[in-house]
Amino acid sequence: MHIIYKGEQELLEKLKAKDAQAFAQFYANHVDRTYAYALMILKSPELAQDVVQDSFVKLWEQAELLDSNRPAAPYLLTIVRNKALNVIRRASKEEHITEQISKFALDSAETGMEYTERRQTEQLLDKAVQHLPNKRKEIYELCHQDGYSYKQAAEKLGLSYATVNSQMVKAIRTIREFMVRNGALLLLLFTKF
Question: Are 125 and 191 in contact (CB under 8 A)?
Fold first, then answer.
């Protein structure tokens, strides 16, 4: 059964009372915008998705603190920003650990199996990109393959930054769903698109 809430205030009241359906509705209403914001900060789809999930968990855990007379989106975006900044801080502190590990790692050539898996993943990714609508594909290729920032891509294509950002979020979601549908779920963990 799907409940339709009359407005944001009623939804927040139910959310404060730990109503799971209200939370599901709130999540559905805000997940895309929240993900786009996290992606803008982190530039990594995987990290952005993790931050979004952690942020919604924190919102659920602290739901009783919500003020139903105020919109919850700014509060949620503050949580996202803080969590994203924490990820960036943690990464900068842990960089020395990564360097130390790489110093002691054995220099080994890619095995035949690793090469085959990498090539299959690349082919699936290429196929997923080819299935994108033309404008979305053009934006994706500019940003991910040609190294344009969202702002540079917007200027080159004569679009707004928000349009480029929105199209990138949709492109990444579509690519991820395509990869999962085609059996690349585990490979996604090691592939950046």
Answer: yes
The phi and psi torsions of 71 (rounded to 5 degrees) equal: -65, 140
CA angle 48, 52, 54 (to 5 degrees): 115
| Each residue's pLDDT expressed in tens, for the chain with a length of 193 residues | 344 445 778 888 888 888 888 888 888 888 999 998 888 887 778 888 889 999 999 988 888 888 878 888 888 999 999 988 888 777 666 654 344 434 444 444 445 555 556 667 777 788 888 989 999 999 998 888 788 888 999 999 999 999 999 999 898 888 888 877 766 544 444 444 4
Find the length of the chain. Answer: 193
In 10 A of CB 150, how many CB atoms?
21
Sign of CA dihedral 33, 35, 38, 43: negative
Residues 6+ positions from 163 with CB-CB distance below 8 Å: 154
Cα 160 to Cα 156: distance, rounded to the nearest angstrom: 10
Measure the CA–CA gap between 150 and 160, rounded to whole angstroms.
9
Question: Of 83, 94, 87, nearest to 59 (Cα)?
Answer: 83
In contact, 157 and 171? CB cutoff 8 Å: no
